UniProtKB/TrEMBL annotation:
<protein>
    <recommendedName>
        <fullName>GAF domain-containing protein</fullName>
    </recommendedName>
</protein>
<feature type="transmembrane region" description="Helical">
    <location>
        <begin position="84"/>
        <end position="102"/>
    </location>
</feature>
<dbReference type="InterPro" id="IPR029016">
    <property type="entry name" value="GAF-like_dom_sf"/>
</dbReference>
<feature type="transmembrane region" description="Helical">
    <location>
        <begin position="47"/>
        <end position="64"/>
    </location>
</feature>
<dbReference type="Pfam" id="PF13185">
    <property type="entry name" value="GAF_2"/>
</dbReference>
<feature type="transmembrane region" description="Helical">
    <location>
        <begin position="262"/>
        <end position="283"/>
    </location>
</feature>
<dbReference type="InterPro" id="IPR003018">
    <property type="entry name" value="GAF"/>
</dbReference>
<keyword id="KW-0472">Membrane</keyword>
<feature type="transmembrane region" description="Helical">
    <location>
        <begin position="114"/>
        <end position="135"/>
    </location>
</feature>
<feature type="transmembrane region" description="Helical">
    <location>
        <begin position="289"/>
        <end position="310"/>
    </location>
</feature>
<feature type="domain" description="GAF">
    <location>
        <begin position="344"/>
        <end position="498"/>
    </location>
</feature>
<feature type="region of interest" description="Disordered">
    <location>
        <begin position="660"/>
        <end position="695"/>
    </location>
</feature>
<keyword id="KW-1133">Transmembrane helix</keyword>
<feature type="transmembrane region" description="Helical">
    <location>
        <begin position="155"/>
        <end position="174"/>
    </location>
</feature>
<feature type="transmembrane region" description="Helical">
    <location>
        <begin position="14"/>
        <end position="35"/>
    </location>
</feature>
<feature type="transmembrane region" description="Helical">
    <location>
        <begin position="189"/>
        <end position="208"/>
    </location>
</feature>
<keyword id="KW-0812">Transmembrane</keyword>
Length: 695
């Protein structure tokens, strides 16, 4: 019986170490995730501080447990004291997180902000006292059960502060949940509130005041510790799922899918690999193999199996995440998977030409979509050439002149080029007889048709002066010509679809930015639906940069969300209703406000930003010429240009706030004038009395 209990105790202790390692991996992965996708949200940034406290506490705990097996026993106390960086700071970090949540609901409190600042200052003092004095934790380590320190005289006042701060922070979170109005935000806040207190409660050093419960079997306290650590791991994952929606400019389904895949590929895989290495040290004696070898094999197998698992369950996972939008998501995935890129089209056409050369024993063949100078395809022509090409020809150049291609494109179906006029075939005809060829300079050319439109021209090196095909060759050429024409038709449809999508991208980006602004626990306000993120400096800077990049004309200026600014609306009146000129006028005024006082200098530091914008944007000079005029390298110019864009965005934001203040003043003035007018009308009206007049 004792042997069984000892084996169970060892298994629980091993599982506890694996759980602690999993918590560390998950917390670190969530910090990275927040840095990648949610760094603009104050809620996410404060949650990252909570995660760093969890990392500090659990890393010290894990290293202290591992150091027990090291002959240098003095390192155990060091790790136990260093883990207090997490214990000391978690109350203040939790309170700051709860304050950020309440502020997102519109409940701002100077008292809470002051309490957060005092809490962080108190945390610094506590950590310093733990490291350098015995006031909170006395010297020495108790090795009974789980290694721990002994309490000092100030430990109990710290306990009151700890639980008082956690209780206040928890109350704030439930208050934020109560203030949530939409069903989605209330559901997410329920997840968050139910898990919020778990990290703080799980990290508190309970063994300092009560010691190890030696009256109980060792297995029971260890099982309790394991369950608490599992709860902390689940809690930070639930909280991370909720925080992932704050400050992220993407649809909810994209955030959910990204978060789930990230957790599977990152923390879950890493935790499985750590488990493999830890377990391999225990099975070494069973398999009579080196533990490191077993661990490497197991780790590699786990990594491969996780990737296979993700590929297998991804379609089902996407449908579950999409919910009611599963059918739309399925169509989007099919569209993405079945798109034909330019490389795919080129490879397919090369295979067709190879089959054509093999069928007709030709040495060279080509397909081109550039039929005349006015055709849209010539902006991005497709020229596919295989076989022998003259060595003096430029790469990608056709072996026939443009006149030959134009002549082939104008060839009517079923009409011979040598004067033999047959009855024309329907316009959808591609190839049936030798009369569909045109002979030009040793090449046979044939147009590739789709309905009434010629999409391209196929050509091959002529084996004879006049086309002379057998029935089998004629049938094979018809099939290959038809396939090439269909491929070009599909590519043209895709190109038109891409052009339509490109026109939608700016609107979609703008919509995602506005959706991100409405993801707060409270009901969205009118400011959340503003089309221009005046209060989000990074987004506004990007919009200003895009507009300035096409200052003298282009879709980034003509279709910019900046056109919805009130200051631009005021400028439209001065530009006779031309919105593009109005935006250009506002940007020019913002650049002019950057201009320092005094005589202009091309070398003074205070003139640098203005000179860059005035020369590059207003005068439309090339980067090389601007750098030469300002005596700087092009790389230095690009760095300073970014700073200039940020300054213009700041000025545009200030101009917009001024316009809003003018609008509010005008509304108040109009309201006051209306009230005075109503009051005047009331005075002019005769008084009406009830009953007979007095004698």
């Amino acid at each position: 019986m004792d042997a069984l209990l000892s084996a169970a105790l060892g298994a629980v202790q091993l599982l506890n170490r694996i759980t602690v390692a999993g918590i560390l991996v998950t917390a670190f992965a969530l910090v990275i995730y927040i840095g990648l996708y949610n760094r603009r949200s104050s809620i996410a940034r404060n949650y990252a501080l909570v995660l760093l406290c969890v990392i500090g506490a659990y890393l010290g705990d894990l290293l202290a447990q591992v150091s027990e097996f090291d002959p240098r026993a003095d390192s155990t106390e060091l790790w136990l004291r260093l883990q207090w960086i997490g214990i000391a700071f978690i109350p203040a970090a939790s309170l700051a997180l709860s304050d950020a949540l309440l502020r997102a609901t519109g409940d701002s409190s100077p008292l809470r902000r002051l309490a957060v600042q005092i809490g962080y200052g108190f945390s610094v003092v506590v950590f310093a006292l733990v490291l350098s004095t015995a006031l909170i934790a006395t010297p020495g380590v108790s090795t009974e059960g789980l290694t721990h320190l002994a309490p000092g005289p100030l430990f109990y006042p710290f306990t009151l502060y700890y639980f008082g701060s956690v209780a206040w922070a928890t109350y704030n979170v439930f208050e934020a949940r109560r203030r949530s109005l939409t069903a989605t935000s209330k559901r997410r806040m329920t997840y968050f509130a139910s898990a919020f207190a778990a990290p703080s409660l799980g990290m508190f050093p309970y063994l300092l005041p009560v010691g190890w419960p030696s009256a109980l079997p060792n297995l029971l306290p260890w099982v309790g510790i394991l369950l608490v650590n599992m709860g902390v791991g689940a809690a930070i994952t639930f909280m991370g799922y909720t925080v992932a929606y704050f400050g992220a400019s993407a649809p909810d389904r994209v955030i959910k899918r990204r978060m789930v895949k990230y957790l599977i590929r990152g923390p879950l895989t890493a935790a499985a690999v750590i488990t493999a290495f830890v377990v391999s040290t225990r099975v070494e004696r069973w398999l009579d193999l080196p533990g490191a070898f077993v661990g490497l094999i197991a780790a590699a197998t786990i990594i491969l199996m996780v990737q296979w698992f993700i590929d297998m369950v991804q379609p089902t996972l996407d449908r579950l995440i999409a919910g009611d939008d599963a059918e739309e998501v399925r169509r989007l995935q099919q569209f993405s998977a079945r798109l034909m890129t330019t490389s795919d089209l080129t490879q397919y056409l090369e295979n067709i030409l190879a089959a054509l050369c093999d069928l007709l024993r030709a040495k060279t063949a080509f397909i081109t979509t550039c039929l005349n100078d006015s055709q849209d395809a010539c902006a991005a022509p497709i020229n596919v050439i295989i076989g022998d090409v003259a060595p003096d020809d430029a790469p990608g150049s056709l072996p026939v002149p443009p006149d030959a291609v134009r002549s082939a494109a104008m060839l009517l179906p079923g009409r011979s080029t040598n004067g033999a006029n047959d009855q024309p075939l329907p316009s959808s005809h591609t190839f049936e007889a030798e009369s569909d060829f045109i002979v030009w300079g040793g090449y046979w050319l044939i147009p590739l048709r789709s309905q009434d439109e010629v999409l391209g021209v196929m050509g091959l090196a002529a084996r004879t002066a006049e086309p002379d095909l057998s029935d089998e060759e004629r049938e094979g050429v018809a099939v290959l010509v038809s396939q090439a024409a269909r491929a070009l038709e599909d590519a043209a449809k895709q190109r038109r679809a891409f052009e339509a999508l490109e026109r939608l991208v700016p609107e979609a980006d703008d919509m995602q930015r506005r959706m991100a602004g409405t993801r707060n626990p409270a009901a969205p306000t009118i400011a959340d639906f503003e089309r221009v993120p005046v209060d989000n400096h990074d987004d506004l800077t990007q919009l200003v940069r895009d507009a300035l990049s096409q200052y003298w004309g282009g879709p980034k200026l003509a279709e910019s969300p900046l056109l919805n600014l009130r200051v631009v609306g005021e400028a439209i009146k001065q530009e006779n209703g031309n919105a593009t000129k109005a935006l250009r006028r506002v940007l020019a005024e913002a650049i002019e406000r950057l201009k320092p006082d005094g005589a202009r200098s091309f070398t003074a530091a205070e003139w640098m930003l203005y000179n860059i914008l005035e020369l590059k944007i207003m005068q439309n000079m090339k980067v090389r010429d601007v750098a030469r005029k300002l005596v700087m390298s092009e790389s230095d110019l690009y760095r300073k240009q970014r700073a200039a864009f940020e300054e213009v965005a700041r000025i545009v934001a200030e101009m917009e706030r001024e316009a809003r203040r003018r609008e509010q003043q005008a509304m108040r003035l109009s309201s006051d004038v209306g009230a005075q007018a109503r009051a005047g009308c009331e005075k002019e009206e005769p008084a009406v009395t009830a009953g007979p007049s007095a004698p």
